[in-house]
Amino acid sequence: MNTQHSYRDDFPALRREIDGQPISYLDNAATTLKPQSVIDAITDYYTNNGSNIHRGKHRLSEEASDAYEASRVVLANHIGAAANELVMLRNTTEALNLVASGLDLGPDARVVGCVDAHHSQLLPWRRVGHLDLTTVDPHGRIDRDHFRSLLRKQPKVVALAYCSNVTGVIHPVRELIAEVRATCDATIVLDAAQYLPHQRVNVRELDVDFMAFSLHKMLGPTGIGCLYGRSEALMGLRPLAVGGGMVDWVDMDSSVERRIPYKFEAGTPAIASVIGSAAAIRYLEALDPVQRHRHDMDLCEALVSGALARSDVSLIGPPEVTDRIALATLRLDKGIPAGEVARLLSDSYGFMARSGHMCAQPLVTQLAGGETLRVSAYIYNEVSEIEGLYKALDELLGLMGPAHS
Amino acid sequence: MFDAVREEIAYAFDRTVFFRNHMEANALRPEDIRSAEDFQRIPPTSKSHYRRNFPAGVLAKGYTLNSPHVMRFQSSGTSGDRLNSAILAYDLTRRQATALGVNPRFNELWRPGTRPRICRFAPPNCSDVECATGFSSMADRTLPDGTLVLTVAHDLLATPEWQVVKAFDEIEAYQPDLLVVDSTHLAFLARWGRRLGRTITSPSKLHVVSGYTLMTRVARRQVEDFLGDAVPIGDMIGMSELGYLGFECHLGNRHINNKDFYVEFVRDGKPVADGEMGELYITTLDDGLVPRIRYATGDHFTPLGDTCGCGTELPRVRIEGRATHMVRLLDGRVVTPGEVDAVVGDAPWMDLYKLEQDPTGACTFRYIANLTARDDDVTALEKRLTELLGPNPSRVEAVDYIACERSGKFQSCVSRLAAEETP
To answer: SUPFAM superfamilies of this UniProt entry (chain A) (predicted)?
Structure first.
């Protein structure tokens, strides 16, 4: 088991100094940094192989195919799925679009979503059906009564987010899925992009039809998102893209698609990034889950208590640390622009945090009224960094607040 | 003048954490600096220092970012060297007035009790507003000082027609007295204006101040042709964090503002003689908000040491450009962006150009020709460039698109070789 100190040592980007000062990376809900083992896995593929997969008989191609498919097994095992139930795509957004477009819903099909969803779990559904959004309370917890009432309209799809990238709230997904199963026969599509980096998920126990997630939010390279689908659900899905690699046979008039998951993976995939993704999963699985969870909770506690202790920021999300990840979205009072603060936190203090609407504009507008500042921590962060960020924020807000001269 | 410098040093030492630390780290105190020679004992300060220490370490005690008359801003800076800073509105005005004072064609811009209506058309990252999307209104893009920022794409030549039309419409609606522009951007608008049959007019007398990047003769020719002789055009020497450092007189010479700043031109740590190129170091005078001492600007000039016929007392300089934009040749010579521009000339057959030196030292000159271009024009330019850039290999390439820098600026001359070698 690594110590917290060695986590940081595993991430070469954290050795960087800007303008002579070390950096603190607190934008992990957007993407995480990459450990050396992931970088090495990618470099090794390009250094020693570099060939294409699946349709070659030569030695390098076979090695690359083996490494690619072995990576799929690692990723599938991580969520309790079979390898053929895991489709390798570019990102969560592509995965959710694949499901939305591939279900061939009629224009009147009802879809139940939630107002706190990321745009990638809102817009694909809005395009293909009638989307009803479940409301949340002022702290971002889902309105269960409203959810139940929407289920009674017999939706074709229920599109859930496991965890909000704005409030950090972990929704009671198990209970919600049980309610769906008891009420209607909707297909359940889960966005786990924010949750899976923090907690393991077993898709079979969860009884979900589809689940999407991105490896870059859990130490993997950018450009890899995964779609899990129960095999029978996947078999009924229409591919988003057609072309090379996803067919078994093509003649002058017709073609025969490959079996799942290959029929969804048209064209040459991001081979190196898939191999790097498996290295990321191996890194995460090597950590002590209990210690990791405790560390996550410590970070969460520091983020929440830091926000609650200040009068000039408002926490967008629940004031407690249960059922939430180590993420705090802040509204800055007195009209202080979040974007300017994020820039100064970065350039003057070395804290990399995000500002804006977080790709969840309806929710951010509703709860915050405008741009916010989001601080999101991960395994290589320490409580002292969060304390340092709040101290820097105090100094900045003191200088940006009302004039005194 | 040096008494004012000493006062600024004492003020910065007393009122800012950064400068006190900077002096103490070099075992210096304000009273140690009694002469211009002593002054050189203070190691130069840099953009990096001010970026890292802004605001807490460089804002003078007693001020906040919301104090009266404080204007704060962020920009991408030249070549992506980010900048966050603040300036007192009246310091900006004072420096602007001194600089523009060298050119009588701009006299009527400033009348007692009025402020010119200013419209800005420049790289979007240089503005404090989100101007590159189509959703912003004129009100969204009007800065606290009343300046209207026009929309333009980050990649200038990729600006769509609707955005160009919007720029023309808004100039017409806003009726500016002054266009503050990047000349490459305004030349782009001029070409579109001819295509669309649009002109730029205003009920009041229009003036143009060009800044942000080197005003090439190619751009200037297009702007002058489009706006006509009646519109004064002046090339501004400036930096976001300092305002006007100098201006072009009506005879076309550049003058540096040594009334509101103490200026040095330095090479290898020593002041250069007249006629030699050096980096401009700026020391602010009477800057109550963010005093800067020996601020190394990264911009190079040659002080010419002569008297200009325009009558101003501000010294004449030649703009040479930034170190990272200077072409380094195998024989040890350095070719500045200004020298390249002189060789290109106003080239009526050309719309836009960019010279780029790659890390191996080879140079590629890309240009976008207009319909009047003849083979002879290209051959003659090729010959002049070969003479200028030899012994390094160079080639000339006709293109129909040249990308902007990521910062949104269009630099007419860049050197990847120099950028790699510059710390």
So the answer is: PLP-dependent transferases (SSF53383)
Distances (CA, A) of A241 to A95, A101, A106, A261, B292: 12, 11, 20, 13, 58
- Can A359 be counted among the known catalytic residues? yes
Judge: B66–A19 Cβ closer than 8 Å, yes or no: no
DSSP A142: B
Res. A236 pLDDT band, cuts 50 70 90: very high
Q: What is the pTM of this model?
A: 0.90
Report the alpha-carbon distance of residue A292 to residue A284 in Å, rounded.
9
Q: How many CB pairs under 8 A join A and B?
A: 56
Q: Enumerate domains of chain B plus CATH numbers.
A: 2-304 (3.40.50.12780), 326-421 (3.30.300.30)
How large is the ipTM? Answer: 0.86
Q: Cβ(A122)–Cβ(A150) under 8 Å?
A: no
Ordered domains of chain A (ranges, CATH): 4-30+288-400 (3.90.1150.10), 38-285 (3.40.640.10)
Residue whose pair of structure tokens reads 């067919």 in the numeric block: A247
Q: Does B62 touch chain A (CB under 8 A)?
A: yes
**What size, in residues, is chain B?**
423
Per-residue model confidence as pLDDT tens digits over A350-394: 999 999 888 888 888 888 888 899 999 999 999 999 999 999 999
pLDDT in tens, B4-52: 999 999 999 999 999 999 999 999 999 999 999 999 999 999 999 999 9
Close Cβ partners of A290 (under 8 Å, ≥ 6 residues apart): none
B55 inside 8 A of chain A by CB: yes
Contact across the interface for B52 and A19, Cβ inside 8 Å: yes
